[in-house]
Specification:
alpha+beta, four-stranded antiparallel sheet, NADH Oxidase, globular, 210 residues
Amino acid sequence: MDFDFIYKRHSVRQFKDDPVPEQVIRDLVKAATYAPSGKNQQNWHFVVVTDKNKIAEIARIVETKNAKLSTYLTDEAKIKAFKGSVGYHTVFKAAPCLVLVYAGPYDTIADMLLEAGIMPPDEAIKYAKPNPGIQNIAAALENLQLAAASLGYGTCWMTGPTYAAQEISEYLGFNKQGYYLAAMTPLGVPATDKLSSPPRKPVDDVLTFI
């Protein structure tokens, strides 16, 4: 079967300076909104940043928060690993466009059970594990990335920088009731056409027929 539209997607971390046309961004976000969502809640919101100075400042915010959070760690190996991750958490600074995806409120059965107060909380919270609200965001971002790859653009799924979500949102002045920064992706023309992805686990290792 021809699934090239899937296999064209790679995690791209280096980009050309070419700007991404606004209409292309609109088309990609439209593709994202056609993702499935629980109860058709569509609890997503996309914030697009194309100002290079703002993108650079967001990277600086992430670096600052990384340094601050590292002071709350005590294990030297973990401190080193966390500080070392900041380079991966700021690769978006090389892109001409940054797309931030916010997740909105989504009531689950766990919320209802906890509110009712009859079932013990430690049992009720188990029903929150599927977290359909965040799965909606994941599906939308996957749509956007597949659509981008089909047009020759590169992206990179990122959740690491969200530890600076509050600071990033305050800097951008974005405040939508109940929404929080869940993920982001740089967007742009890849700096090279020699793209690859890490090996995938064999299908037989992740598939069970019953």
